[in-house]
């Protein structure tokens, strides 16, 4: 009678946004001009569907529609 060991649940997927932002700043990743509305948006991947979505930590808004390049200047 072999005893089967219980399988461990998968590790939760999460990101520490503050660490991610600090790494991005240290790597020189600049998104547009600092403080501009476009630079406030972050691109993320939905883990269940694999599709990209956009998150604005300043306003707390999320959207499936790309907020980049939708200004009056084209």
From TrEMBL:
Q: Name the InterPro entries on file.
A: Rho-GAP (IPR050729), WW_dom (IPR001202), WW_dom_sf (IPR036020)
**Which Pfam families does UniProt cross-reference here?**
WW
Q: Which UniProt keywords apply?
A: GTPase activation
Question: Which spans does this entry mark as compositional bias, Low complexity?
Answer: 22-33
Q: Which GO terms describe its cellular component?
A: cytoplasm
- Provide the residue span(s) of the region labelled Disordered: 22-43
- GO MF, one annotated term: GTPase activator activity
Q: What are the WW domain coordinates in residue numbering? A: 39-69
Please indicate which superkingdom the organism of origin belongs to.
Eukaryota
Recorded protein name is RHG27 protein
């Amino acid at each position: 009678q072999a005893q089967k060991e219980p399988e461990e649940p998968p590790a939760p997927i999460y990101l520490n946004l503050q660490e991610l932002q600090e790494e991005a700043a240290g790597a020189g990743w600049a998104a547009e001009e600092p403080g501009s509305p476009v630079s406030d948006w972050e691109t993320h991947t939905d883990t269940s569907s694999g599709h990209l979505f956009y998150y604005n930590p300043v306003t707390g808004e999320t959207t499936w529609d790309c907020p980049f390049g939708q200004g009056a200047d084209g």
